[in-house]
Amino acid sequence: MCTFPGRRREESMGLRFFCYLSLVLLVWRPFEVGAHDDPMIKIMEDFSGYPIHEPSSSMSLSVDSQSLQKQIDELATFSDTPAPSVTRILYSENDVLARRYIKNLMRNSGLTVREDAVGNIFGRWDGSQPDLAPVGTGSHIDAIPYSGKYDGVVGVLGAIEAINVLRRAGFKPKRSLEVIMFTSEEPTRFGISCLGSRLLAGIDVLEKALKRTADGHNISFYDAARSAGYAHNQEDLTSVFLKKGSYSAFLELHIEQGPILEEEGVSIGIVTAIAAPASIKVDFEGNGGHAGAVLMPARNDAGLAAAELALAVEKHVLESGSIDTVGTVGILELHPGAINSIPSKAHIEIDTRDIDEKRRNQVIERIHNSALTIAKKHLDIMITQDANRQHIQHGTRANARKKQFLD
């Protein structure tokens, strides 16, 4: 995955796509490109560690930045909330319209389009040797409530534009290239992140769990999928699973969702590790009452218990001693939710992440113990911990060469 700064996204789009296209070209070897003195080829060779063979004719890469920005802006209009925010929830009306928009762009770029049972969308550009395992590139377009218009979207629209650039340059790959729009990267509707990609990876536990999964309005996953045109006449989703070796490589362009690259004045970076998230859901139940009638010594305030746990999350994360350990209390709900009523129930959801799985799990254990300690103050408690995911460390060659590439 390569990332670029989040705030200046509309600036220097050509430079970022030059870097991205260089990486895209790296996965197709050998190449049919121009002379050895081409500076772009030298950068690609220096970064990849591979020589580029078979020079034939000059190839000029020209990104249509204006068209790409226009597509990003148009896709942002398929939203449940007004601009500049974007809200696009899985299988909603705007999600279906956005999918249609993506498929039309793929077809207009000469790609062969197909979809699987959950709505992962594939746009294929056949190479000269289509029997070889293809190279995949892409991302997602679903958007959490009130998000920005670039998250995920750049990886999908950028991949389509990358193919357009290569086509205009007269490039013909040996391996096929497949642009993938993954279904439901965000957990907004069903509480399951990376749903489409995890099914592609053959996660059998998830496939079985979806049979009994429903959203907050008690709409089952299958009913929601069918309302959007997917999962028809199917009682299982194993058809989505990919066979081992289905792709030879995968590359994703993504915005940096933090300030580091921008603060350092770096236009693009190469991801070296992906932090594995884990979530904890805690429910406290105390005693309600009128805010003016129950004296402080007699209270079992579920809201204060949740607040105390939120502070404990920050404390335990900072105690890890690593800048890569993060914790977020993204949801805190109180019942009955009146200013003059003592909360009798509190629901809190915690997200913890780290590139070091052992360190993350230690933080989770400390949060868990803090919740139990807080609950000893005459409160009932229920703790649910979602399945942990493992972190991913990327190749050492890319790590060693990323600075030279960016220079």
UniProtKB/TrEMBL annotation:
Nucleotide-binding as UniProt keyword: no
Annotated signal sequence range: 1-35
GO biological process: allantoin catabolic process; purine nucleobase catabolic process; ureide catabolic process
CC terms in the record's Gene Ontology section: endoplasmic reticulum
Cofactor(s) the protein requires to work: Mn(2+)
Gene Ontology MF: a single term: manganese ion binding
Superkingdom classification of source: Eukaryota
Keywords, in A-Z order: Hydrolase, Manganese, Metal-binding, Purine metabolism, Signal
Keyword set includes Metal-binding: yes
UniProt subunit comment: Homodimer.
Full protein name: Ureidoglycolate hydrolase
Organism from which the protein derives: Kalanchoe fedtschenkoi
Taxonomic lineage of the native organism: Eukaryota, Viridiplantae, Streptophyta, Embryophyta, Tracheophyta
